[in-house]
Design goal:
This protein has 133 residues and is mainly α. Helix content is 68%, strand content 6%. A two-stranded antiparallel ribbon has the order 1-2. The N and C termini lie far apart (72 Å).
Length: 133
């Protein structure tokens, strides 16, 4: 097979020097293997992502993670209270309280969303339909 190039719309054979330069610029077998492997791995990750979100959409995954964190925190606080042990410092408790306050607001929005989905008003975006911040 002869290597060619396009010159003014016509295929012209490469000179031996041009062909050698072109070959030297091509990826090696190992480089191609790496590229193909990256593409295959990327495809596997994409497929896994689609299958995971088919089981549990991203928003439900985030909710589940937040709820599990909330439950672990509740359990730790109960345990600390039971054994009369100060589990968190004052500044950590302030962080926890701030995070819980934000999460409580999110839960209120989700609860209101559930109600609005049953009978969607035309102006559902209006603040009057949503919890105050």
């Amino acid at each position: 097979m002869t290597a060619t190039k396009n010159v003014n719309g016509e295929q012209v054979e490469l000179t031996p020097e041009e062909a050698a330069k072109w070959l030297a610029e091509q990826p090696t077998q190992d480089e191609w293997s790496g590229v193909l492997r990256e593409r295959a791995v990327s495809g596997v990750k994409a497929e896994a992502g689609m299958r995971i979100t088919a089981i549990l959409p991203g928003w439900k995954q985030r909710n589940l993670t937040a709820r599990w964190t909330e439950l672990v925190l509740i359990g730790l606080m109960r345990l600390a209270e039971h054994v009369n042990f100060e589990l968190f410092t004052e500044s950590e408790m302030a962080e926890i309280a701030g995070g819980q306050e934000a999460w409580d607001q999110i839960k209120a929005v989700r609860k209101k969303s559930d109600l609005l989905e049953k009978a969607v008003p035309e102006d559902f975006e209006a603040d009057k339909h949503w919890p105050k911040r």
